[in-house]
Specification:
The chain has helices spanning about 5-20, 25-40, 55-65, 70-90, 115-125, 135-145, 150-155, 185-200, 225-235, 245-260, 265-270, 275-280, 285-295, and strands at about 160-165, 170, 180. It is mainly alpha-helical and about 300 residues long.
């Protein structure tokens, strides 16, 4: 079996070429492995990667904890170790992953701020429809919430992306990935209310004729402008939460999941690459799931 030095060299190439990580990120992973090697030296063993066992890794984690590293640093070290052994399994250098059951320290995961339906109604009620931009703002926020869009997706939304008969809107998301998202009848109604104001504009910029939401100069709105509009509405409504355009996206997803929507469907609508990203909206952690199984499974021994 090849030495640690050789394995780390090949692992480094894997991280850089296949994972596309920066040199700083690659070095961080390698430094975590060097901690493991240092631990093995202290233990007086010259075990290569193929000889490392689960018990050894658990002892290593206790040693890392004794070094006084904080919880986030410990979690990062464990993540690096798990990544390395997963690489070895993938390359068929080892048949069993000794890091599979390693768990890091519990780190409080900050859940995103979420608005209740009542709070969303309160924000919408704060929109002054007598102002020229009022109907635009109401339509814009209704689309933001009912489709769960990122702010960049909202400002780039085109009239030609609306498929009214089918009830879908086409979104070009991160990495130019396209997805179809259902659009509510309420959002479509607000768009209809806004369109006469939009079409009455005399000076729509030549390059923005297909953009749905325009500023008073006939150009695409900026991300900063969306933040400003929402901040002003929050102040006017009297809500005390920290609310940004992304809060509407979080609220969209949370309300769907709480209502029983399939997590894969929510993942598809949000355009998340990984289901893990979507799972934050279940607001569950491993301990909660464990307790639920113990409480309700017929074989739990109650």
């Amino acid at each position: 079996m090849k030495s640690w030095e050789t394995e780390i060299r090949e692992y480094r190439s894997f991280l850089k070429l296949e994972k596309g990580l920066s040199e700083n990120s690659v070095q961080a992973y390698v430094n975590d492995l060097k901690k493991l090697i240092r631990f093995l030296e202290i233990q007086g063993t010259d075990a290569g990667p193929e000889k490392v066992e689960q018990d050894t890794l658990h002892a290593f984690i206790r040693w890392v904890n004794d070094l006084g590293l904080n919880a986030r640093s410990q979690a990062r070290v464990i993540s690096g170790i798990k990544s390395f052994f997963k690489f070895l399994v993938m390359e068929e250098r080892i048949s069993t992953d000794p890091s599979l059951l390693l768990e890091g320290p519990r780190i409080g995961r900050k859940l995103p701020e979420v608005l209740s339906i009542g709070e969303i109604d309160k924000l919408f009620a704060a929109i002054d429809l007598s102002k020229p931009e009022g109907r635009r703002n109401k339509a814009m926020l209704e689309v933001l919430y009912s489709c769960g869009l990122r702010v960049s997706e909202l400002v780039g939304l085109r009239i030609s992306d609306l498929f009214r008969e089918e009830g879908f809107v086409r979104i070009i998301g991160k990495g130019n990935k396209e997805r179809l998202v259902p659009v509510s009848s309420t959002a479509l109604k607000e768009i209809d209310n806004y369109m006469p104001d939009r079409n009455a504009m005399l000076d729509i910029d030549k390059g923005h004729t297909d953009i749905l939401f325009l500023n008073r100069r006939g150009r695409q709105l900026t991300r900063v402008m969306i933040f400003t509009i929402i901040r002003q509405l929050v102040e006017k409504s009297g809500l005390k939460k920290r609310i940004s355009p992304h809060t509407f996206r979080h609220s969209f997803a949370t309300h769907l999941v709480n209502g029983g929507a399939d997590l894969r469907a929510v993942q598809e609508m949000l355009g998340h690459e990984s289901i893990v990203t979507t799972e934050i909206y279940t607001h569950l952690d491993r301990e909660y799931l464990r307790e639920a199984i113990i409480s309700y499974h017929p074989r739990s021994g109650k």
